Amino acid sequence: MKRPIYKRVLLKLSGEVLMGKSSYGIDIDAISSISQEIKEVVDLGVQLGIVVGGGNIFRGLEANVKGMDRTSADYMGMLATVINSIALQSALEKKSVITRVLSAIEMKEVAEPYIQRRAIRHLEKGRVVIFAGGTGNPYFTTDTAASLRAIEIKADVILKATKVDGVYDKDPVKHSDALMFQEICYNDVLTRHLKVMDATAISLCRENNLPIVVFNLQKNGNIKRVISGKSVGTTVRA
């Protein structure tokens, strides 16, 4: 395996990847498999921050559409990310990966409060840092939280783990003729309304020249392949 081309990375995981083959909640086998891949990356000496969504437990936006107050729904979604973060921390520590959960919503009994300098210090000490609670504010997605945290910790790249191989010109699940991009610029993602990350997240990355690599997490070893500089998925950059 080549030496890592990135020193510090922000990995964005959707809550759905923790479901495995289940339709809801957290699948122990799935989270154990993800933890093993993360361990292999950490063993390469990469400093790793993680933002995990909460869609396997609660989707604030969908609840809002069905009539729930948007602010209340978003806070419930943020709490779901805390549950996932604690579960991922437990799975990682069972593999002897020292991990800290930092939450944007204060809950000192289960997580440290998010402080930028503290997060960076944990990373410098070789600990995996899981950023829970989104941005701590309603109306912002965990994609935006991932972009914000990546910028704050001065990450080299965002790795966006998905269920498809990369960014396509249209939904590959619905269209068999969908074409995948090897590389695409931020502006094209925004103007073509491609579902990479939400517009706020993409704009933050564009303004700070932070590249995003979108890849398929369901193919074993892909995180390490991306870290080592192999051509995997789609890279979004200027």
Give a description of the structure.
By secondary structure, this protein is α/β, with parallel strands linked by helices. It has one domain: Carbamate kinase (3-Layer(aba) Sandwich). The protein is built from 8 helices and 11 strands. The strands form 2 sheets. It has a 9-stranded mixed β-sheet with strand order 4-3-5-2-1-6-10-11-9, with helices on both faces. α1 (28-42) links the parallel β1 (8-13) and β2. It is globular. The mean pLDDT is 94.
Sequence-ordered SSE layout with sheet pairings:
Elements: E1 8-13, H1 28-42, E2 47-52, H2 60-65, H3 70-93, E3 99-103, E4 112-113, H4 116-124, E5 128-132, H5 142-152, E6 157-162, E7 167-168, E8 180-181, E9 183-185, H6 186-191, H7 199-207, E10 212-216, H8 222-227, E11 234-237
Helix pairs in contact: 1-3, 5-7
Shape: globular
Gyration radius, to the nearest Å? 17 Å
Q: Kindly name the structural category.
A: alpha/beta
Q: Work out the strand percent.
A: 15-25%
Uncertain regions spanning at least 5 consecutive residues: none
